[in-house]
TrEMBL record:
Source domain of life: Eukaryota
UniProtKB keywords: Kinase, Transferase
Transmembrane segments: none
Protein kinase domain sequence ranges: 6-259
Cited InterPro entries: ARM-like (IPR011989), ARM-type_fold (IPR016024), Kinase-like_dom_sf (IPR011009), Prot_kinase_dom (IPR000719), ULK4 (IPR045906)
One term of GO molecular function: ATP binding
Protein name per the record: CAMK family protein kinase
Organism of this sequence: Trichomonas vaginalis (strain ATCC PRA-98 / G3)
PROSITE patterns: PROTEIN_KINASE_DOM
C-alpha cells in the first residue's frame, strides 16, 4: 500500500453501524491527474483480514457486472478501497423505496446478477453474500456485484464468524448444519432467495432470532407468491430446494421459462454456454495401512490434491516449494535489505544532478576508455588539468562520471595511475565543485570497476593522503564527496581482502559521531553496512564499531532514509555476532522503535536485529501491534517472530493463535514458502501440545482447536501421527478435569472438515464422556454422536454400542442443561431413522424417561418427532396416568413446530379412538375416557383453522368431532367453537381441488354426527356461518365435495 493517488470529494454512502468496528463510509473521489471518478470506500483497519480476502479475489475479476477494483491504501486506522464509481445506489435502496419490484424489472436485474455469477463460477469463485446492499447500479442501471469480503475460492470454507442476519438468511442447510464448503449450488440457493426478496421485499426465511431463522431454513419451504407468475414461483422453488442435488444446473437455470429469452438479447449472450458443473461430493475419511517409510513422508510433506479428497496415502509427487523448506527462524533472519548498496551518488543520501553533455565534443570516446591504454588516459588527464574549468574540465568530468557507471569503462579508468591523478587534481583545484566532482569520479570508478589491480597502483600513498586531506576539507561539499569516495574504497577493500590505512578508517569513524555532518554520517553508515556484509569485516575494529553504532539514537536521525541506513548497519553488524552486554539496552530501544514507529523496511530490519540478538521478548508488545495492524512482509515477519517468542509459552501463544492461523491460511497463496515453513513448525508444535495434554495440561489444546478452523491448515496438521496420538489420549482420558473437553472439540472439527470419521471413535468416546461432570464434555460427546448417527449406513456394531451407552445415561441426559438435552434429542432423531423400534424400546423403559421427553415439547425442536413414535408404544391408561395430554396440547401452540405437533396429536387421537372402539359395549368406560381427554376438545378450533394448510389437521378435526359428539343423554356440544373456523376454511377452499379431500373428510364426519345426535344436528343448524358455507360448497364445490356437502345439508335439515 503506497501513498494515495486519489482526490476525495463528498460522502455518498454509509454502511451499517457496528459495535465491533468503525462504520464504513463511501466517498466520491477522482484519480489524480485524470477526469475519472471512482468510489473510495473507507473501512476500519481491524477488518484487515476480510478486506485482504476481498482484494485477493476481486483484483483478478474483470466483468461488466462486477464492480472493478483499482487499488487500496492504508491510512492510519483505515483502509481505503478504490473501486468503480456506481452512482445508481443499491438494490436495497430500491426495495426500501418500492418494497417490491415488478417481474419485468426483476428479470432484467436478475439477468445481470446471473451473468456475474456464471463468470465467477467459471473462475472457481463463490460469492455467498447475497445481501441486497451488495448489488449496486451504475449510471445506466446495470447491476454489479460488490463487496467480496465473504467470497470464497473453490475448495475453501465459509467464514461463519460474526455473521449478519442478512447473510444467514440466504445460507442453505448444508452450510449451516454441516459446514460444507460452498459450491455452485450454494450460490444458486442464495440467488433464489434474492429473487424472492426482489418480488416480496424480504427473504423467504426472515426471522428475528437466529434460532428461529435456522429452524425455518431447515424445516419450512418457500411460500408461494400469489401475485407472481407460476414461472417465477417455480424457479424460486427449485433454486431453494433443501437438497443441493435437486437444485437446477446452470444449463437448466438459463433455459427456465421465467427468463423469456432475455439472455439472447444480451451483448454477452455467447458467455451463457460451456456451463460449469456442480460437484456435490463430500470429503470422506479413508483409513488405510501405512508403512513406516510412508509415515515419515507424511510427517514432512504436504498431501496431494487436497481440494478433492482427504486421504492418508503418501504422495510421490510434491510441490517444488516443499522440496526444501527453511525453518521459520531462518526465514525471519533472511532479509532482502541485507545486501551491499551503492554509496557514491546514492540519491537517498544526497541529491546529485549531473548536467547533460555532448559526447561528440569530448576528446575521447567511451570505447577508447574501455581499452585503458596510456595514450587515452594521458589525453583525459591533460584536459582535466586545463585551466578552462567551464568549457574543458567540467563537461569532461561529467562525461566520465556518467560513463564510469559502466563496469568496462570504470575498469579502463582504473589503470595507469588515473585514480591517483584525479585525486591529486581534486586536492589542487581551487574550485569546490570541481574538487567534489573529482571525488565523485574516483568513487564511481572504485564502485563500478570489475577489476582493479589496487596493490600495484602507482602512488597509493598519494591516493590515501589525498583522500585524507579532502575528507578534512572545510567545504562541506568536498568533504561529503570525499567521505563517499572513502566509503566506496572501504567497501572495495573489504570485499577483496585489501588493507586500508587507519587514517581513512578514522575518517569513517569520525563521520559516525552524532555531532558529525548528517550527510557524512549517512555515507559512513552505508560504508559500515557494506563492510559488515563483506567477506572481510575484520578490516574494521569491530569493538570500536559496536561502540560507535550504539551511540547513535535512531530518533535523532534527520530523515527516514538515514534511519533505514542506521538500522541496516546495525542489522548487518550483529548478523551472526553476539552483542556486548553493554549494547543490549540500546538494541532493545532501537528494535522497539524500528518495529512500529517507522516504515516497513525498518520494521523488518528491527525484527531481524531482535531475533539475531535474542531480544524478541523485549519487543513483544511492538511485535503484537505490528502483527495486528500491518500488512504484507511486516505482518508475516511479526507473526513468525511471535511464534518464536512464544514457542515455550503456550498460554501466550494461545492469546494470538486464532489470528495467527487465519493469516497463515492466506499466506499459502501470497507467501507459499513462508506458509510451508510455518506449517512445518506448527506440526512439531502440535506434537508438543498433545504430549502435554496427555499429562493433564489441557488448556493448550485451544491452540489446536483454533488452527483447525481453516480448512487448508487443518488438512496439513491432521496427519496420521497426529490422529493416532489424539486417539490414544481419548482412550486413556477420564474427562473429569476442566479443559479435557478440548480433546473432543478437536475431533469435532476434524469430522466437520471431513478429515476423520466420527463412527471410528464411538467405542472410545462413550467410555467416560456421557457421565462426565464437565458440561462441555457431555455436550461435545453428543455432538459427535449426532454426526456419527447422521449416516444411515452406520455400522450396526457401532449403533449397538451407542444404544447400550445411551440406555445407561439417557435419563440423566434428558434432565441435563437445555443445550445438552437438545443435542441428545438430535442423536435420538437420527437413530429413529436407523432403528425406530430400538429407540422406542430404549425410551419406553421408564415412565420418568417418558415424562422427561414430553416435558421438552415446545422447548426443543426435535422433541415432538421423538415423542410421536414413542406415543404409539404407550398404552392409553399410561398416557392418562402420566398426564401427557397437557404437553400434547402445548405443542399445538408452538407455531414453529405446528406440523410435527399435528402429527403428534393425530397419533394420540388414533389411540383414543382405538380405545373407545375396544370398549364400545361399555358405555361407562367410554364416558370415563371422554371425560379424561375432555381438554382436547379445545384443539378443535385450531385444527379447523389449519385444515387447508395441513391435510392431517383435517384428520385430527374429524376424530375430535367423532370423539366429542354427545353420547345419548348428553346435550352439550363441546366442539361447537370449531364450526366458525371450519366455515372460513370451507369458504376459502371449496373451489380448490387440492383442498377437496380434507374438507370432504370433515363434512362426512359432521354428517355422521348429525345423523346420530340431535344435539349436534341442532347446533349445526344454528351455526349460520357454517350453514352458509355448506350451501356455497353444495352449489360451487369441486368434484365429490359438492355431493358430500349436499348430503350433509340434507341430514342437518331433516
Amino acid at each position: 500500500m503506497s501513498e494515495m493517488q486519489i482526490k476525495i470529494y463528498g460522502e455518498i454512502g454509509k454502511g451499517r453501524p457496528s459495535p465491533n468496528f468503525a462504520q464504513t463510509v463511501v466517498y466520491k473521489a477522482r484519480k489524480n491527474n485524470t477526469v475519472e471518478f471512482v468510489a473510495a470506500k473507507t473501512v476500519d483497519a481491524v477488518r484487515l483480514e476480510e478486506i485482504s480476502n476481498a482484494v485477493h479475489i476481486q483484483h483478478n475479476l474483470h466483468h461488466e457486472n462486477i464492480v472493478q477494483f483499482y487499488n487500496w491504501y492504508q491510512v492510519e486506522n483505515s483502509i481505503f478501497l478504490v473501486l468503480e464509481y456506481c452512482p445508481g445506489g443499491s438494490l436495497s435502496d430500491i426495495l426500501e423505496r418500492d418494497v417490491r419490484l415488478p417481474e419485468s424489472v426483476i428479470r432484467i436485474f436478475a439477468s445481470d446478477v446471473a451473468a456475474a455469477l456464471l463468470y465467477l463460477h467459471k473462475n472457481g469463485v463463490y460469492f455467498t453474500n447475497f445481501d441486497t446492499r451488495n448489488f449496486i447500479l451504475d449510471e445506466n442501471g446495470i447491476v454489479k456485484l460488490s463487496d467480496f469480503c465473504r467470497a470464497v475460492i473453490d475448495g475453501n470454507y465459509c467464514n461463519l464468524t460474526d455473521i449478519d442476519p442478512e447473510y444467514l438468511e440466504v445460507l442453505p442447510v448444508e452450510i449451516i448444519d454441516f459446514s460444507s464448503k460452498p459450491n455452485i449450488a450454494t450460490d444458486l440457493y442464495a440467488f433464489g432467495c434474492l429473487l424472492y426478496k426482489l418480488a416480496c421485499g424480504q427473504t423467504p426465511f426472515a426471522g428475528e432470532a437466529q434460532e428461529e431463522l435456522e429452524y425455518k431454513i431447515r424445516n419450512t419451504s418457500v411460500e408461494y407468491i400469489p401475485y407472481c407468475s407460476p414461472e417465477l414461483n417455480d424457479l424460486i422453488k427449485r433454486l431453494t430446494d433443501k437438497k443441493a442435488i435437486n437444485r437446477p444446473t446452470w444449463s437448466e437455470l438459463i433455459a427456465h421459462p421465467f427468463w423469456k429469452n432475455i439472455f439472447a438479447s444480451r451483448d454477452d449472450y455467447e458467455d451463457f454456454s460451456n456451463f460449469p458443473t456442480m460437484d456435490f461430493s463430500i470429503p470422506a475419511y479413508e483409513s488405510s495401512e501405512i508403512t513406516e517409510n510412508e509415515e515419515d513422508i507424511l510427517d514432512i510433506e504436504p498431501k496431494e490434491n487436497l481440494a478433492n479428497s482427504i486421504t492418508f496415502r503418501a504422495s510421490s509427487v510434491f510441490s517444488s516449494i516443499s522440496e526444501k523448506v527453511d525453518t521459520i527462524r531462518n526465514l525471519l533472519l533472511r532479509c532482502n535489505q541485507l545486501k551491499q548498496q551503492s554509496v557514491v551518488m546514492n540519491q537517498a543520501v544526497e541529491a546529485i544532478n549531473l548536467p547533460s553533455v555532448n559526447a561528440s565534443q569530448m576528446p575521447v570516446t567511451l570505447e577508447a576508455i574501455k581499452t585503458g591504454n596510456q595514450e587515452t588516459i594521458d589525453t583525459i588527464v591533460k584536459q582535466l588539468s586545463s585551466k578552462d574549468v567551464v568549457k574543458r574540465q567540467s563537461p569532461l568530468i561529467t562525461f566520465l562520471i556518467t560513463g564510469a557507471k559502466n563496469p568496462d569503462v570504470a575498469t579502463g579508468l582504473s589503470t595507469n595511475g588515473f585514480l591517483s591523478s584525479i585525486l591529486n587534481l581534486a586536492v589542487k583545484s581551487k574550485h569546490v565543485s570541481i574538487a567534489a566532482a573529482h571525488c565523485i569520479l574516483f568513487g564511481t570508478i572504485i564502485q563500478s570497476a570489475t577489476k582493479i589491480d589496487f596493490e600495484n597502483q602507482v602512488n597509493n600513498e598519494i591516493i590515501y593522503g589525498a583522500l585524507e586531506k579532502l575528507s578534512n576539507s572545510p567545504k562541506d561539499k568536498v568533504k561529503r564527496k570525499a567521505i563517499s569516495a572513502i566509503s566506496a574504497l572501504l567497501t572495495f577493500c573489504a570485499n577483496n581482502g585489501y588493507q586500508i590505512p587507519q587514517k581513512l578508517i578514522d575518517a569513517i569513524f569520525n563521520s559516525l559521531k552524532p555531532s558529525s555532518d548528517d550527510v557524512c554520517r549517512h555515507y559512513a553508515l552505508k560504508a559500515v553496512a557494506n563492510v559488515c556484509l563483506s567477506l572481510h569485516p575484520e578490516i574494521l575494529d569491530l569493538n570500536l564499531l559496536e561502540n560507535a553504532l550504539t551511540k547513535l539514537d535512531v530518533t535523532a536521525q534527520p530523515n527516514n532514509a538515514m534511519v533505514e541506513s542506521l538500522s541496516l548497519a546495525v542489522c548487518a553488524f550483529f548478523k551472526d555476532r553476539k552483542p556486548q552486554s553493554s549494547s543490549n539496552e540500546y538494541l532493545q530501544r532501537l528494535t522497539k522503535t524500528l518495529i512500529v514507529k517507522l516504515g516497513a523496511t525498518t520494521a523488518s530490519l528491527g525484527m531481524v536485529i531482535a531475533c539475531e540478538c535474542d531480544i524478541l521478548n523485549s519487543s513483544k508488545e511492538e511485535l503484537t501491534i505490528a502483527f495486528n495492524k500491518s500488512v504484507g512482509e511486516v505482518k508475516w515477519r511479526s507473526m513468525i517472530a511471535l511464534c518464536l517468542l512464544y514457542r515455550n509459552s503456550m498460554p501466550n501463544f494461545m492469546s494470538i493463535s486464532e489470528r495467527v492461523f487465519s493469516h497463515a491460511d492466506k499466506l499459502q497463496y501470497d507467501e507459499p514458502q513462508v506458509y510451508e515453513a510455518f506449517i512445518r513448525w506448527y506440526c512439531d508444535y502440535c506434537d508438543e501440545i498433545l504430549d502435554a495434554s496427555s499429562k493433564g495440561q489441557y488448556l493448550n489444546l485451544r491452540i489446536i482447536v483454533d488452527s483447525l478452523k481453516q480448512k487448508n491448515n487443518a488438512m496439513r496438521i491432521y496427519r496420521p501421527k497426529f490422529d493416532r496420538k489424539l486417539r490414544d489420549i481419548l482412550k486413556n482420558e477420564q474427562f473429569i478435569l476442566g479443559g479435557s473437553e478440548l480433546i473432543l472439540e478437536i475431533f469435532l472439527q476434524s469430522f466437520i472438515l471431513g478429515l476423520s470419521d466420527s463412527t471410528t471413535i464411538v467405542n472410545d468416546l462413550l467410555l467416560n464422556t456421557l457421565q462426565s461432570p464437565i458440561k462441555d464434555v457431555r455436550y461435545d460427546s453428543l455432538r459427535i454422536l449426532t454426526m456419527a448417527t447422521s449416516d444411515l449406513n452406520v455400522d450396526s456394531t457401532e449403533t449397538n454400542v451407542i444404544f447400550n451407552q445411551l440406555s445407561k445415561h439417557i435419563e440423566f441426559l434428558l434432565n441435563d442443561d437445555l443445550v445438552i438435552c437438545e443435542c441428545c434429542f438430535k442423536v435420538l432423531d437420527n437413530l429413529l431413522l436407523i432403528d425406530e423400534c430400538q429407540v422406542v424400546g430404549l425410551l419406553s423403559t421408564k415412565n420418568t424417561i417418558i415424562q422427561s421427553l414430553f416435558s421438552k415439547i415446545g422447548t426443543i425442536n426435535t422433541s415432538i418427532k421423538i415423542c410421536e413414535p414413542l406415543l404409539s408404544s404407550i398404552s392409553f391408561e399410561n398416557i392418562i396416568s402420566l398426564n401427557l395430554i397437557p404437553q400434547i396440547m402445548k405443542s399445538i401452540d408452538q407455531s414453529d413446530f405446528i406440523k410435527d405437533s399435528i402429527d403428534l396429536l393425530y397419533t394420540f387421537l388414533l389411540i383414543v379412538e382405538d380405545y373407545i372402539e375396544a370398549n364400545k359395549n361399555n358405555q361407562k368406560e367410554i364416558k370415563k375416557t371422554i371425560k379424561s381427554v375432555n381438554s382436547l376438545s379445545t384443539m378443535a378450533p385450531k385444527c379447523a383453522s389449519l385444515v387447508l394448510k395441513y391435510p392431517k389437521s383435517a384428520d385430527c378435526l374429524k376424530m375430535l368431532i367423532n370423539i366429542f359428539t354427545p353420547l345419548p343423554g348428553q346435550t352439550d356440544v363441546v366442539i361447537e367453537s370449531a364450526f366458525q373456523p371450519f366455515a372460513t376454511a370451507l369458504m376459502n377452499g371449496h373451489c380448490k381441488p387440492e383442498c377437496a379431500n380434507s374438507l370432504k373428510l370433515v363434512i362426512e364426519q359432521l354428517k355422521k354426527s348429525a345423523f346420530n345426535c340431535n344435539s349436534m344436528k341442532l347446533k349445526l343448524k344454528c351455526s349460520s356461518k357454517l350453514m352458509s358455507a355448506l350451501r356455497t360448497a353444495a352449489q360451487n364445490g369441486v368434484g365429490e365435495l359438492r355431493k358430500t356437502t349436499e348430503g350433509a345439508l340434507n341430514v342437518i335439515r331433516s
